[in-house]
Design goal:
Elements lengths: L1 E5 L6 H12 L3 E3 H11 L2 H12 L5 H12 L8 E4 L5 H14 L5 E6 L2 H10 E4 L5 E3 L5 H9 L4 E2 L6 H15 L1 H8 L3 E5 L4 H11 L4
Parallel strand pairs: 1-3, 1-4, 2-3, 4-8
Antiparallel strand pairs: 5-6, 5-7
Helix pairs in contact: 1-10, 2-3, 4-5
Bound molecules: adenosine monophosphate.
Length: 215
């Protein structure tokens, strides 16, 4: 399975990619996660990426494409991959084509996670991570028991640095301007599959499996 997950910030790409990774045993590769790790480790790349990420703008195509090229060359990606948050620009899509061409492989599908803007805002402004378990929660949508379980275990509900209202607005604008053109790009290549991505996580996952022919 070699797929790309497309969709706005908050569309649930990461959540669904992780479920697919667990079921299919192919790695979820998230450029956002790779960049956050670089920032946390204080590497040279992390230092460059930090302020760009905090503002909600995109890190340069050269940096993320080099990162992806290296990651796709690792052993666990040989059996397949789920790209989450890459490509995000037409230039990155062309870079990806070139890398896959060098490896002699192609994409099976580009999955568009389709979510309306009201739901996106609630998902992004409500998103939290439990500091003790790492579980992803949402103050608007998670069952109160799950939130209480984190707090009672002494955990804190952490918010991503770029999940504040200003950065969220910018990330959505950047998505509309730079990433949405990829929908047409992959449609023209007959790779696009759209998944209605509102509702319960399990329902969305069932629709995703159907669109991939796994159901
Ligand atoms: P994400 O976790 O996918 O929402 O990404 C968080 C931030 O990392 C984005 O707002 C960008 O600043 C940066 N980022 C992640 N993936 C990319 C990418 N493919 N191209 C450029 N910047 C990226």
């Amino acid at each position: 399975m070699r797929i790309v997950m497309l969709g706005a910030p908050g569309s649930g790409k990461g959540t669904q990619a992780k479920l697919l990774q667990a079921e299919r045993g192919v790695p979820q590769i998230s450029t956002g996660d790779l960049l956050r790790t670089a920032v946390a480790e204080g590497t040279e790349l992390g230092l460059v990426a930090k302020s760009v990420m905090e503002s909600g703008e995109l890190v340069s195509d050269e940096l993320v494409s080099a990162m992806i090229k290296e990651r796709l060359g690792e052993a666990d990606a040989a059996s397949g991959f789920i790209l989450d948050g890459y490509p995000r620009t037409l230039a990155q899509a062309e870079d990806l084509n070139a890398v896959l061409g060098e490896l002699g492989i192609g994409l099976d599908a580009a999955i568009l996670m389709d979510v309306g803007s009201d739901v996106l805002m609630k998902r992004l402004t409500g998103r939290r991570t439990c500091s003790t378990t790492g579980k992803l929660l949402n103050i608007h949508f998670s069952p109160p028991e799950e939130i209480d379980a984190c707090l009672e275990a002494g955990g804190e509900l952490l918010q991503r640095d770029d999940d504040n209202e200003e950065a969220i607005g910018n990330r959505l604008a950047v998505y509309a301007r730079q990433t949405e053109p990829l929908i047409e790009y992959y449609r023209r290549r007959s790779l696009l599959k759209s998944v209605a991505a509102e509702g319960a996580i399990e329902e969305i996952y069932a629709r995703l499996r159907t669109s991939l022919g796994l159901a």
